[in-house]
Design brief:
Blueprint (H helix, E strand, L loop, with lengths): L1 H13 L12 H4 L12 H23 L11 H4 L3 E8 L6 E8 L11 E5 L9 H12 L7 H17 L4 E6 L1 H15 L5 E5 L14 H23 L10 H4 L6 E4 L8 H14 L3 H7 L4 H6 L15 E6 L6 H5 L11 E6 L3
Parallel strand pairs: 3-4, 4-5, 5-6, 6-7
Antiparallel strand pairs: 1-2, 2-3, 7-8
């Protein structure tokens, strides 16, 4: 008891300026310590490592905000544990926050399927030093304007520079929430340039009506069918009848790129991806493949407003993906949207490959 009291007083002393990290920031208390030997062929291991490297970016920024340096820093174990080193942080030119990081694999023996480099992006950090800038970028993402932000342009430049040096076979992209949107858009752009990159997207935002939260499956399916018909009709009216036959269309160009999507059904920010891909299968079953092929390429908002604003990039439209759904019970939104669920040793996931052909 005396030792515990002494430890508590010491912790209070060092935490006067919020220098003490939360349990979730400390790798030794909340990281995937069970991964002492990573099997790079194991999808659970790969997912856990990618998520941990994203968490490393969050903690890098928290270290910066709390002025934690040297032995007080908590970020490095999130990558050192997996034999990565920090090559360069990515710094926002507006608020000077760390929003991303470039990691290099530094194991003495290179493992087959291990990435030599990972570029990871954090999501929104609800802290005073970064909150305002992050929320502004969230709004830009909702408006399909994220590609116009200087943060995304910095991210894209970092990706292009690395690809120019090492190619795409040795690189992963990874992100969570807003960072997932940055990674997704970067991956799309590189694929259009014929440089597809292996990409891990945790809780990627899907900006749409939350149909997935409707409990009645018949009502939910009926709404999705109606929306598909409307989207297909607007697409024909706005873009012309032969729009879907254009093989150089960016949607078809992206069809061979298969990013890994990780979503939680109780997280309404990303859960619509479940219905987005599942609905395609159901439309095929009822013989409405042509309608759905046209509908799935278009967003109603982007088609309507895109007439006036041509430079508009819908984030959530994806031809193909390897979708993993967390089937574990999550008690609240914070945990359902959190990054920690993706390396939980008791993770219960359901995965399915969705290809657009």
């Amino acid at each position: 008891m005396l030792a515990a009291c002494r430890g508590y007083m010491e912790e209070r002393e060092t935490g006067k300026q919020e220098a003490v990290a939360s349990v979730r920031e400390i790798f030794g208390l909340s990281g995937p310590l069970y991964l002492t030997a990573v099997d790079w062929e194991n999808s659970h291991h790969r997912r856990s490592v990618a998520a941990s490297l994203v968490q490393g970016v969050y903690i890098l920024e928290r270290d910066r905000q709390q002025k934690r340096q040297g032995h007080q820093s908590h970020a490095s174990p999130w990558w050192n544990f997996f034999h990565f080193q920090l090559i360069s942080p990515l710094i926002d030119d507006v608020d000077f926050s760390i929003f991303g990081a470039i990691y290099g694999y530094n194991s003495s023996v290179f493992e087959h399927n291990a990435p030599k480099y990972v570029i990871a992006f954090r999501g929104t950090l609800n802290k005073p030093d970064s909150r305002l800038r992050d929320l502004k970028l969230d709004i830009q993402a909702i408006r399909s304007k994220l590609h116009q932000s200087s943060r995304f342009q910095l991210a894209m430049q970092a990706v292009q520079d690395l690809v120019a040096v090492v190619g795409t076979a040795n690189i992963w992209l990874a992100g969570h929430s807003l960072g997932s949107a940055i990674a997704l858009l970067s991956g799309k752009n590189m694929t259009k340039l014929n440089y597809p990159i292996e990409t891990y997207l945790f809780n990627p935002p899907f900006f749409s009506l939350p149909i997935e939260c409707i409990s009645n499956p018949k009502v939910k399916h009926g709404i999705r069918i109606a929306r598909s018909v409307v989207r297909a009709g607007i697409a024909v009216a706005v873009k012309g009848q032969h729009h879907s036959s254009k093989k150089d269309d960016s949607f078809f160009v992206l069809s061979d790129w298969v990013p890994y999507l990780f979503v939680n059904p109780t997280d309404h920010i990303c859960s619509e991806y479940i219905g987005y891909f599942e609905h395609r299968k159901k439309m095929k079953e009822v013989g409405a493949t042509k309608i759905e092929r046209l509908a799935t390429q278009n967003s109603i908002g982007n088609m309507i407003f895109g007439v006036c604003v041509r430079d508009c990039e819908p984030l959530h439209l994806l031809p193909s993906a390897y979708l993993t759904i967390n089937m574990s019970q999550t008690p609240d939104f914070k945990r359902a949207h959190g990054i920690h669920q993706w390396w939980d040793p008791s993770f219960d996931g359901q995965s399915e490959l969705h290809l657009f052909r």
